[in-house]
Design goal:
7-stranded beta/alpha barrel, six-stranded mixed β-sheet, 23 strands, 3 domains, about 500 residues, binds zinc ion, alpha/beta, globular
């Protein structure tokens, strides 16, 4: 009897953990299945007329989000801008002419990076010019001025307003006290009691999107979670490091699925989520991508960008049909013989080819995020009979910053699958859009029409159907979710 009890106990000791792991896995998989339903629900495959995920003919979308750290001279900044954003001749050959954008710092010690208030009027004039032409679209926090306070931050916003500069993307910077994030970047910018508090002013000015320090190693956001997506992090040339990265990324996802706040963005692998700041305001938080084998965040240098946007990454991005916003610091280039390392120049030229051949939609961070929101919250309906299709666009039901009736420019790239492109008409309210492009069948075998910028409505201002149009005077109450900020949509060439 005693012997029997002993072996029973042994079996139980063995079985209980196995059973616990089994139950955990079943619950985890069930939760992932429920999370993924959201993506399947938006899959247009079965509808006669449907919204295509990306503008035709692109299969994926990418932005490079460059933080200005260590960009120490105006010459360096200008040369990098010329290479990434124009086709002009540079010291590194002809520019690649993509719409990549850049960021700027209001305050920063001179041994860090050039900044708006550095005292050099050429730097501030360049920043203003580039914000206005769209080649700077991100404010990289207020920087690291000793004793930084609300009045310094207010002064920057006044400068932007005075110069008619619109910025809608915020990116936390290192340990700047003005940061908005809590978990990775430890900022006080959204703590109402702190002298650095500015989130009320900054959101009222027009910031809609913020990066709060979160980075993913998975290439391709806004796609369902699959076991295989974690496996792609593995790098045969660096098996130990990359295997640890795979496990870490799975662990983050599992923690998020079971309610961990720090990794909440890893839960459904989306590009954007609605986040609450410490003062109760809400903002669109986005995640950035870096899969460098040494670990998350280690690839954000000029030289390592070549790895992060390698052919392997871009192929993966196209395969899953995802969005990605790449995290980098082009100014961290001490180990490069030129402003941009030769390997990174080659990777960027390869990216330009992917854009030119219609594979990857490359846009600046703000324009990619604008497209994402416009696409996600677009409200429209259609009639289709005998191949004749009429699409009526109502508005963009932005749950955070209010419903807008966009102008045609704000819908640039929006693409609808239709049965007969020649017999399709699209209306925005009562106005018929006059600039559409008819597209042949794509890899899904479906023809489509794309809305082009510059059509009817170009000169009109988008109107916003929100209760308080005009500048917002107070922080938005948590429950309303609507602000009265002027619409930030813009379109057309930058
Ligand atoms: Zn930074």
């Amino acid at each position: 009897m005693k012997i029997k009890n002993m072996s029973l106990r042994k079996i139980l000791v063995f079985l209980l953990p196995v059973a616990a792991i089994f139950v955990f896995c079943v619950i985890y998989i069930k939760k992932i299945y429920d999370i993924n339903k959201y993506y399947y629900h938006s899959d247009p495959e079965n509808s006669l007329v449907a919204l295509r995920k990306f503008p035709y003919p692109y299969m994926a979308a990418l932005a490079i989000s460059n933080d200005m750290d260590d960009t120490q001279t105006l010459d360096e900044f200008l040369e990098i801008q010329k290479f990434i954003n124009t086709r002009e001749m540079t010291s590194m050959g002809q520019g690649i002419g993509l719409n990549i954008g850049n960021s700027f710092l209001p305050y920063e010690p001179a041994n860090g990076a050039i900044s708006y208030f550095s005292g050099d009027p050429n730097v501030s004039a360049t920043i203003i010019r580039d914000i206005r032409n769209g080649s700077i679209d991100v404010i990289h926090s207020y920087g690291k001025k000793p004793g930084l306070s609300r009045s310094d931050e207010h002064a920057m916003l006044q400068e932007l307003r005075r110069n008619d500069c619109r910025i809608e993307v915020w990116v936390d910077h290192d340990r700047s006290p003005s940061n908005l994030g809590d978990d990775v970047t430890f900022g006080l910018g959204d703590h109402p009691g702190a002298k650095e508090y500015h989130a009320d002013l900054t959101l009222r000015y027009g910031i809609r999107f913020a990066w709060l320090g979160r980075v993913t190693m998975i290439a391709g956001q806004a796609v369902p979670i699959r076991a295989g997506m974690f496996a792609t992090i593995f790098d045969r040339d660096h098996p130990v490091y990359s295997a640890i990265n795979v496990l870490k990324e799975i662990a983050k996802n599992a923690l998020a699925v079971f309610g961990d706040k720090k990794y909440a963005m890893q839960e459904n692998n989306d590009l954007v989520r609605v986040a609450s700041l410490d003062d109760g305001q809400r903002i669109y938080e986005f995640i950035r991508f870096d899969d460098y084998w040494r670990g998350v965040g280690t690839g954000a240098t000029n030289k390592r960008l070549a790895y992060v946007i390698s052919r392997k990454t871009l192929d993966r991005l196209k395969e899953v049909g995802g969005y990605t916003i790449v995290y980098t610091h082009l100014g961290k280039n001490n180990d490069c013989p030129q402003y941009i390392c030769p390997g990174t120049q080659a990777a960027l030229r390869n990216l330009a080819r992917e854009y030119e051949t219609g594979n990857i939609y490359v846009r600046s961070t703000s324009r990619l995020l604008d497209y994402y929101v416009a696409h996600k919250y677009l409200r429209w309906k259609y009639d289709s009979e005998g191949g004749k299709t009429t699409i009526r666009i109502r508005d963009i039901a932005d749950p955070l910053f209010g419903t807008t009736v966009p102008n045609a420019d704000a819908l640039e790239g929006i693409t609808f699958y239709v049965p007969d492109t020649a017999r399709t008409r699209i209306f925005l309210g009562r106005k018929e859009l006059d600039r559409l492009r008819q597209n042949p069948p794509d890899s899904a075998g479906r023809p489509s029409v794309t809305i082009l910028a510059g059509g009817k409505g170009r000169s009109e201002t988008a109107s916003r159907r929100s209760p308080s149009n005009g500048p917002r005077q107070e922080a938005v109450p948590e429950e309303s979710g609507i602000s009265g900020r002027a619409p930030a949509y813009r379109g057309g060439a930058s």
